[in-house]
Amino acid sequence: xxxxxxxxxxxxxxxxxxxxxxxxLGILVGGGPAPGINGVISAATLSALDRGWKxxxxxDGFQHLxxxxxxxxxxxxxxxxxxxxxxPLTAGSILxxxxxxxxxxxxxxxxxxxxxxxxxxxxxITIGGNDTAFASHLIxxxxxxxxxxMVHLPKTIDNDMFLHTSVPTLGFRTAHAVGHQIVRxxxxxxxxxxxRFYVVVAQGRHVGHLALGIAKSTGAHLALIPEEWxxxxxxxxxxxxxxxxxxxxxxxxxxxxxxxxxxxxxxxxMPLDEIEAVFQAQVRRDEAGYIRMNELELGFQVQxxxxxxxxxxxxxxxxxxxxxIGFEARSAEPxxxxxxxxxxxxxxxxxxxxxxxxxxxxxxxGQKLTQIPFxxxxxxxxxxxxxxxxxxxxxxxxVACYCMCRLKQSDKHRPELITAMARMVGDTDxxxxxxxxALVDEEFLERYDGIFVxxxxx
Length: 458
Hints:
The protein has 458 residues and is an alpha/beta fold.
């Protein structure tokens, strides 16, 4: 553990700085961990030190900046070259992180500004996702113009920051790679031990970039993401119907294994009373006001519902298992892409600040730095940061859907497939005549009509 600044009043605040006093850079990390954070801290610190600046790291994001100055010195460390030289390829964050959110009250924002001024921060780098970026924006907006300038560096494995380009946020590529290997192994496991199906839930509070990417790259048989509902409410049984449809279709085709990847953000679209009824728990929220998804176990509930459905059916009884992907992906060591990207972001941030840049979100696209003013990232209707979701009209999503094993409109014209699935679901004991069997097929089509999707590339 690094040594805190034990005497901030003596080293920083006792006297006004003389004109030759070095500028002070502050760095903090908010939100959840993401691969590459330490690489950014290292690059920014080394670049700032080369310019003769001092660098202070604030532990635990905004958490202690929101509190009084009294104990803050226990959570501020001066970063040196020896402390950051060996950390670029390590996981986690040497400054730790938290979801403490100063935007939930003007007092917290004011306290953050006072504490930053107390430490005579001249430049500020914040590293985080949408909530950290929005908090940084409000803090800078409320601070006197002459106090400090700041830039934000986008990191989140959700990949949901509105960066104007297709460039991913820091950490996403690594999380995708980690999730890819996990699901690839599950596909092989299911294939080796039929009849077996896995329900995987991937992190993604509002969007499905990670779930879709993992499913597409591994050849998983279904991905469900919030963007498909286009803002409409989603019901738990509807989610289960989609997974059930994939399982029935695979079994009807003689393939007794499969993997479905769900984005956790599907829960966010469910009615609140339904969430509490399905998960039999009162909904709890984190410091940012979001539902604690990891406490609700979407994968487990879908698994149990599928077990109940197949227990009532006159067919083979597949085995169902679930797996969550999130914590292990966000705290992995950065892959080569994120390790390289982290250096670009860290050094670019210092260059932008040194040349007068302020109130910007930085990213690198096509080997060139892109500087996005905060004002362009604010949604005029919600006054919050815009969210970058999966474009379901784009080729990326449509190719993924084409490769999935979903119930498609063209399947309705494949009587042998419909009959095979209908016989697994319906009561066929009395279906002796062709008319009886046709009725069973019609009942199946009516029951699952809402989840048949349009055909793509036909």
